[in-house]
């Protein structure tokens, strides 16, 4: 994709997009490390008052602890949809607290319990650490569904950006493991492909351009970056078998690097017989809903994914019984 001029950015988010270009033209390991330091010191452990948010821990095979945040309604109802939500940040930064706003939006349209793992990041741990943590959190949610008030027949996985890519990778991994059935996935503007695509080459859009994307993939994959035989659990676009995956909803902007890989992913799911839908927003740069949540286009996108999520809670189940 050629240079993205400012007038190609949607008018609703153009000003903040121009500002983002000036402040952080591209992101690298130093930026990721500084961002993580700030989030861990200023955001971690600070929970909103309009939800019941608790911290839990579960042991990894090596004995270290995975921190898990659980967000529930202040007035929880039984038989809730269990949502494993995976935060974004290029696999390199952020913490689950950053996505509690999404948990709030999920709860606004459904009876759900949202489980957010503090998975290991590539600034310290390369693939498959993040995937291993995501799967551990999914199994933890399955093992503790009764105490969490979750319907064992309705497990969803969702996330945005790298969390969306991790969502897609996890559904492949979970399908192949055959231990925990999934009913639905929602990988929003997902980071799926470590290889160049028509929209990820020389793309200088705000927030997440081609150079930030390359830096993040190299950090996540290390020596496996761009290898021919990379397994699809590392980059879901590498999959060749899309059958028996859960129904899927996503959205993406038409100027962002992930545009083409998202379109291809949805097409592959459809060709495999999986119900899958993508909404495309003109002039939407990456993660515009996080950086300009009050803009009209962000409100439109949010309402659309909330409607798709609500429909999924009413329609899709892991097993035949409800």
What does this structure look like?
The longest helix is centred in the C-terminal third of the chain and has 20 residues. This protein has one domain: Rossmann fold. Helix 8 links the parallel strand 7 and strand 8. The model has no long low-confidence stretch (mean pLDDT 96). Helix 3 crosses helix 10 and helix 4 packs across helix 6. The protein is globular. The protein has ten helices and eight strands. Strands 1-2-4-3-5-6 form a six-stranded mixed beta sheet, with helices on both faces. The protein has a two-stranded parallel ribbon with strand order 7-8. Helix content is 37%, strand content 18%. It has 322 residues and is α/β, with parallel strands linked by helices.
Question: Which terms would index this structure?
Answer:
alpha/beta; two-stranded parallel sheet; 18% strand; Rossmann fold; six-stranded mixed sheet
Summary of the model, kept short:
With 322 residues, this protein is α/β, with parallel strands linked by helices.
How many distinct folded domains?
A: 1
Please name the fourth-level CATH homologous superfamily. Answer: Alpha/Beta hydrolase fold, catalytic domain
Strands of the biggest beta sheet: in what spatial order?
1-2-4-3-5-6
How many β-strand stretches? 8
Largest sheet: 6 strands, mixed
What would you call the shape?
A: globular
Q: Per CATH, what is the topology?
A: Rossmann fold
Quickly count the helices.
Answer: 10
Beta-strand level of the residues, as a percent range?
15-25%
Cα-atom radius of gyration: 18 Å
Q: Which regions are unreliable across 5 or more consecutive residues at pLDDT < 50? A: none
CATH C-level class is Alpha Beta
Instruction: Calculate the mean pLDDT score and round it.
Output: 96
Structural class: alpha/beta
Assigned CATH architecture: 3-Layer(aba) Sandwich
Distance N terminus to C terminus? Answer: 46 Å
**Helix content, binned percent:** 25-40%
Subunit organisation of the chains: single chain
Series of secondary-structure elements, N-terminal to C-terminal: HHEEEHEHHEHEHEHEHH
């Amino acid at each position: 994709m050629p240079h993205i001029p400012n007038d190609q950015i949607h008018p609703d988010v153009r000003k903040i997009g121009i500002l983002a270009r000036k402040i952080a033209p591209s992101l690298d390991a130093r930026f990721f490390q500084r961002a993580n330091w700030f989030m861990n010191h200023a955001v971690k452990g600070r929970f909103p008052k309009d939800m019941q948010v608790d911290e839990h821990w579960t042991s990894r095979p090596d004995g270290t602890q995975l921190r898990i945040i659980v967000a529930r309604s202040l007035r929880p109802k039984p038989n809730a949809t269990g949502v494993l939500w995976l935060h974004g940040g290029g696999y390199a930064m952020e913490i689950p607290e950053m996505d509690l706003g999404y948990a709030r939006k999920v709860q606004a349209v459904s009876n759900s319990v949202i489980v957010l793992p503090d998975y290991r990041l590539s600034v310290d741990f390369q693939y498959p650490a993040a995937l291993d943590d995501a799967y551990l959190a999914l199994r933890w949610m399955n093992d503790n569904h009764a105490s969490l008030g979750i319907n064992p027949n309705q497990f969803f996985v969702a996330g945005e950006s790298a969390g969306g890519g991790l969502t897609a990778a996890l559904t492949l991994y979970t399908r192949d493991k055959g231990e925990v059935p999934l009913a639905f996935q929602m990988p929003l503007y997902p980071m799926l492909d470590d290889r160049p695509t028509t929209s990820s080459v020389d793309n200088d859009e705000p927030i997440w351009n081609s150079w930030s994307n390359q830096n993040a993939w190299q950090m996540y994959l290390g020596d496996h970056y761009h290898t021919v035989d990379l397994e699809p659990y590392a980059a879901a676009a590498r999959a060749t078998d899309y059958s028996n995956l859960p129904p899927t909803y996503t959205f993406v902007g038409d100027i962002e690097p992930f545009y083409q890989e998202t379109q291809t992913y949805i097409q592959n799911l459809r060709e495999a017989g999986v119900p899958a839908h993508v909404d495309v927003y003109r002039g939407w740069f990456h993660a515009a809903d996080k950086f300009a949540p009050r803009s009209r286009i962000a409100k439109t996108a949010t309402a659309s994914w909330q409607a798709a999520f609500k429909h999924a809670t009413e329609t899709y189940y892991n097993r035949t019984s409800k």
